[in-house]
Amino acid sequence: MKIGIIGAGLVGSLLAIYLKKRGYAVSVYERRPDMRRKGYEGGRSINLALSNRGIRALHEVGMEDDLRKNAIPMHGRMMHSVEGELTYQAYGKEGQYINSISRSGLNRVLVTEAERLGVSFFFDHRVERVDLEATTVTFAHPSANKSESFDYLIGADGAFSAVRGAMQLTDRFDFSQDYIEHGYKELTIPAGAAGRFPLEKNALHIWPRESYMLIALPNPDGSFTCTLFFPFEGNPSFESLQTEAEVDRFFKSVFPDAAALIPDLIDDYRSNPTSSLVTMKCYPWVRHHTLLIGDAAHAIVPFYGQGMNAGFEDCRVLNDLLDHHQDDWDRVLPAFQQLRKPDADAIAQLALDNFVEMRDLVGDADFLLRKKIEAKLHALYPDKWIPLYSMVTFHDTIRYSEALRIGRQQKKIMDEVMKMPPETLSSLSLDFEKIMQQLG
Amino acid sequence: MKIGIIGAGLVGSLLAIYLKKRGYAVSVYERRPDMRRKGYEGGRSINLALSNRGIRALHEVGMEDDLRKNAIPMHGRMMHSVEGELTYQAYGKEGQYINSISRSGLNRVLVTEAERLGVSFFFDHRVERVDLEATTVTFAHPSANKSESFDYLIGADGAFSAVRGAMQLTDRFDFSQDYIEHGYKELTIPAGAAGRFPLEKNALHIWPRESYMLIALPNPDGSFTCTLFFPFEGNPSFESLQTEAEVDRFFKSVFPDAAALIPDLIDDYRSNPTSSLVTMKCYPWVRHHTLLIGDAAHAIVPFYGQGMNAGFEDCRVLNDLLDHHQDDWDRVLPAFQQLRKPDADAIAQLALDNFVEMRDLVGDADFLLRKKIEAKLHALYPDKWIPLYSMVTFHDTIRYSEALRIGRQQKKIMDEVMKMPPETLSSLSLDFEKIMQQLG
User: What pTM did the predictor assign?
Assistant: First the structure.
């Protein structure tokens, strides 16, 4: 059986490995040139946070060890105040961490592995037209256009999916794209002498400033990739910082410790693009023999570090369903979208909510105390009270939709707990058993 | 100054009249042939409910009287039970009514008037490409393609707007399309002998059946156009009624009095299309010198009879802003979208809510009692308690967003009132003053 995958990004190439391993003839078509060629610039962001859901999906095709080697563990958040004070908050328990990994490096490894298994890759192939009824795609290619037909076609072609574009022309196709008011811009903190990390290596750094924030993730060479999440309009905003002097003054006043580590701040700021942030939802994900997967089906904002993890989990879930239904695709495709849509909607919401947490709440003493109380609950009842962040990030057996539901219940309970007298809270002299019972 | 309008439908042609009267050079481009030519079949629905907002917009360009002549007043809803019992509910006070009007007839009158004023119409002109930065449109036409540039361009080209399609390709453009689970199909109750109306002429007829409904609006020739709003899937649904016998049996069992009046039921059902129902939202409505208006900016479901009225109100509001800003379009366009977007969102929500009211609640005795209590409140406090339906339909000085907000407040109050003992409620022996005070 002949499977076509559109998009050789992270999800498309991992899915190709899964399907090739099941014995299908798999061809992957990618609009861009081969990312393994010299000079190729990766996708939207330089590094990503790989966590348990993604790792599990890689593990099931035997790719986990390869990738761990190039990942930098981040055990918690390091918050930087305006005064340069540092506050550290562990993400989970001892041994629980997320991983900073190079997007382009990971992509190269996946494509190379897929090719080794016998997947055919066609780069510089742009989708011109998709005939959903015939499962036929017409590609534009520098030399000549060509059409290919497939038994099943999978659109793994990202947030601005051409395959979804074809579905959008069909009747009764729900779709939404919602931009947030913030954009982002990447900046670089270079490595110190001899590859020394100029900030704590094993943390995700955050400069929370209420309406905006700067974050930084480590790279293996000792550098950090910073991302400024900043409003497009208003004050301050990308619009309000016009001159180089304004940019310089702004960074020195609100991110002084970071500014001191970014020697090319002005150049980076001027030459790196300002990109927008969008949530895309659609339904159905299936028309005839064509399926959308990953960002093509559900693009989310990056604030939970789950975009890639959710896409990888899609691949794992699809593979499980192929097992369950003995490769009967006409049963698998509807089952996949029904099972997975609530989870995609849940992580989209969680990602939006987490922006508020990252840019504002993590700078708040009450919030950190709340997290501490939750950590204590988790220590006392490790299987019963799992903090939301842990459910999403470290517990790949809890569905996103379940995590969202339980997290809301927990929030209600904690809102009440936080009304207790400050001394009771700060001394943690709480009736944890009673709190626990409310979770039901 | 040269204004281009895309779409010669109801909103495009009314807007052309408004702008021509202000002294602009106005050209209207329409994908379809001239609807005044013989054999032309109108848009989606045969007749529409014209109410105060639409009438006010027509009045301001002196078109009200022309149109009143061809309108049939509908003073209330006539509900038909399965047993054929009739229940009548007035829409408002004495003298308040909505109007059944032919979509194609109204469109013809507007185009003819615009042409008489000097507007140029170009039919069979399909938008091929819109260059938003240059305000240039390339049209495909049976004889040859051509490009036209404008000072300002207005997309009045409906729910599936090509102008909006061009905006969708720009960054940070929010968009959503949401289909409901129901579709619709039109059926005809022919006139009786000598143009006699086979049902009460001056009412909108509803056969509410909880999960679906049939409605009928009168036409000047004595016939009624019926619309079945019915789920696409499930039981019963368009999918579940497969054979002619099933259709026949279904109508005779659930709409017996209507079925008896539709001689060509089976033919109509088989040959008329089943159409879907969508809510479309987007923002911004303005890019450079191009504006979206009417359904192109905010397509809604038809259950409040406000789609055309909202589009006509758009024209009137735009004209008011042109007055206010002395035709400074660069101030008018942003002001228009900021002012009008909350109202468009509000009527979209109200229209969705009203489907539940029409298909289910109007068949419910408690609901009718609630309406009766509200009518009494309105009689006692005519300027202070205006029922939601009246605010939307008869009060063109209350913005849709205000109507939605006040309606929600009223609902909360009425939910409490309806908890009183049944005998207190049915005898209307209520402390109306006290109820009124809660509105604040």
Answer: 0.91
